[in-house]
Amino acid sequence: MICKDRIIIFNGLSQNRYELTKYLNLKKNKKIILVECKSEKYDEEFSINVYSSESKEENLQIENAIMEKCQIKLRKDYDGLYHMMDRVCLSCASVIFKNKAFSSTKEKYNINELMMKLNIKEQFTPFFMKFLNILQENGYLNYDNDEITVLKSIEDIPEAKIILDNFTEEQKKFAPYVELLIYCASKYERVFSGEIPANEVIYPTGEFNMLDDVDSKMPLSTKRYIYGDVLADIINNFVSKKKKKVRILEIGAGTAELTTKILSRIKDVDNIEYCFTDIGQSFVAKAKINAEVNGYKFMNFKKLDISADIEQQGFNENSFDIIISYDVLQATNSIEKSLKNIKKMLVPGGICAQVQSYDDHDIDNLIYGLSPGWWNFTIDPIRGKRITMHPQEWQKILENVGFNNVQVLPEEIELSDAGVFLSFKPYEKNIDNNKILYNQLKNNLLKKLQSVNEECSIEFINSFDKEDIDAYMSKLSLSENDEVLYKDNPQNIRENEYIDVTNDLESKLFEILKTIFGVEDIAINDELQKLGLDSLSGLLLISKLRQEFKVELNMKDFYSFETVFDIAEYIKSVDIKDIDLQDVEIESKEENKIGSNDISELMDLL
């Protein structure tokens, strides 16, 4: 028998590669081998079947067992607290207007002209509109069709510190949070003009220390954290029923609060694969380091924007049994699109498991409105003026997207400010006994290719990661006439040559970049954006460079760097020996923060 030359095509059934695959499949005397992810392979017993009323009852029992141990007074149940917070928010919303606008009552103003007068950049329009909304709700103005009419003098609104002094002793338990708002309000003018980056106010140096400190000084007044424990126990219960490997994806994992809860319960289970993702590369990098320290070999880490095209980010349909999120989806610009992407990545019968807060106050908007992506909800067509959604609204959108058997915990939603939402991707109807792939379109394309060329076959690997591709290729005995078309690049997985670090400066710089971006192999010519640069990791990187090399970087310098080489050359250009270290010490906390008139340009770039 004549041994035919082979053409091995990775991801050959994808939309971007099928035309090439179809053309190559017509070649005579060629054996076509399509290589797809194992997650694409159809298995009717693969999914977790938890539709039964018995399973729902188990979930209720898990919730009850945890809630019996917890007595939490919700923030909304503190007598008069929301009223006093309303007054503080009114005061802080008026800060940017005092002595600068609204000089007299009954006067009319155009919103765009007012923003120009107050030097407020366009990207802060949603924040500005929140101020106007608060002032309108309190009877100080009315706005309609971009026209503002002043009804009462804003100058008469008392300062927030005076209002805080009038809090009762019980209400003063929340003084750290109110003081944080007052601090944020003192920065509004500089933020809105573009003088300093917004997220630097609440995430100094790109980290969460300040917010964590505020939380530690206040009573636990939300059940969000408790329902994180409820979800972790439910996931553990699901996993214990599954004999085959269970693949879990966490989206927007951030500081790994929910991740930690879940891993503490399932770390000793053998049949687990846990994919940690976030839109911020710095979070992914930190989680990867923590996993290595704890020996979590069943974890992998990727950057993911759940509201964007999943295939372009390296994710496939029907890839996960469980997809979890922890107060994340409300931060996207389209909950519907995000849920559709979740459904797309779930196997039939897979579980979408969420913890969602559904009670919020304006104080949250006025603080966290300074964080990236907070105001995305304002462009989401299914939401109005609130970032959160009521449980009934969540249930409706989940069902509209195509999930079923939605379970909401707690059942008495008014007794909580957060809950667990479980929903399921339906099984397919009229199952094809000859089905090879979950994706019906890809399955049909494969059948067409095989009808044309009987030498066309399909094989599966764990993923398209370099390690899995290398493992697969090592088992093949390639002849000089065999051809291989990789998923991203027919010749190389990565084009940059890895250059050995030969000096101490570059060694230290590479270690900093590895820590921030979580990339093991860094080349001197790597582009910073391709490494995963975002606004928070940018702040963190500048802080680390200042600490390690005693160099001062402003944002204008920073956004001029395109590659790792550019940063290294900049550091080398600074004559460190001539620097008096005492002069390097920052005279005030304000100077220690990153600030420049070029911030708006940088944020557009990122």
UniProtKB/TrEMBL annotation:
Protein name: Methylase involved in ubiquinone/menaquinone biosynthesis
Start and end residues of each Carrier domain: 500-575
GO biological process: methylation
Pfam family membership, one: Methyltransf_31
Alphabetically ordered keywords of this record: Methyltransferase, Phosphopantetheine, Phosphoprotein, Transferase, Ubiquinone
Species the sequence originates in: Clostridium saccharoperbutylacetonicum N1-4(HMT)
Annotated transmembrane regions: none
GO molecular function list: methyltransferase activity
